[in-house]
Amino acid sequence: MTVTRFAALLGAGAALVLPSVLTAGTPPLASPQTTTFEARLTITKECEVGTVGNIDFTPADGVGFLTSELTATTTIAVGCTKGTEAAVKLDDGANFSGTRRMRNGTDFIAYELFSDAGYTTPWDSTDFPTVTGTGGVTGTATSGTADRDQMLTVYGRVPSQDTGAPGDYVDTVTVSVEF
């Protein structure tokens, strides 16, 4: 009864057209086609120097005469991609003349840097420690606290020597990582 009324509304000679999915005898949908793609990232060998602290030989109670040696340490943060071997070198400083020297005007105070706590292995551009990268960092780049994950200690010593004029003695040492 419903179809008759519907046909009457269409009028004489009108045909009802239905989509092919609703009509009988339509073949089933074809099998889906698939393919793949790769996600890629190439990591290159890389090493970086992170945080480096200053080395300050000034004892808490100050110093007047250098009648005995002074020692101090600092750390150098280094990071390399996993498996990358690198040499961590220190240059001779800006005031080198046969030895490293800190400067105050025309006066100098000699000092030495070592890679061991026994102060027996000098650390410079020919004698230096090496690291093998782990690929790790501490902190996160987004938090602003990311740093390299391998910490190397620099052991410094000021031997006893004649004392220069009062004031601040400074030298600048450059750290380089070669890989």
Structural commentary:
This protein is mainly beta and 179 residues long. Helix content is 5%, strand content 31%. It is built from one helix and ten strands. It has one helix spanning 2-10, and strands at 47-52, 70-80, 85-90, 100-104, 107-114, 130-132, 137-138, 147-148, 150-158, 175-178. It has a five-stranded antiparallel beta sheet, with no helix packed on it. It has a three-stranded antiparallel beta sheet with strand order 6-3-10, with no helix packed on it. A two-stranded antiparallel ribbon has the order 7-8. Strand 4 (100-104) and strand 5 form a beta hairpin. The longest helix has 9 residues, at 2-10. The radius of gyration is 37 Å and the shape is rod-shaped. Mean pLDDT is 84; it is low at 1-10.
| Number of beta-strand segments | 10
What is the 3D shape?
Answer: rod-shaped
Strand order of the largest sheet: 1-2-9-5-4
Mean of all residue-level pLDDT scores = 84
Q: What's the main sheet like?
A: 5 strands, antiparallel
Rg (C-alpha, Å): 37 Å
Helical/strand content category: mainly beta
The H/E string reads HEEEEEEEEEE
What layout of secondary structure does this protein have?
Blueprint: H1 2-10, E1 47-52, E2 70-80, E3 85-90, E4 100-104, E5 107-114, E6 130-132, E7 137-138, E8 147-148, E9 150-158, E10 175-178
Antiparallel strand pairs: 1-2, 2-9, 3-6, 3-10, 4-5, 5-9, 7-8
Give a quick summary of the entry:
With 179 residues, this protein is mainly beta. The chain contains 1 helix and 10 strands. The longest helix is centred in the N-terminal third of the chain and has 9 residues, at 2-10.
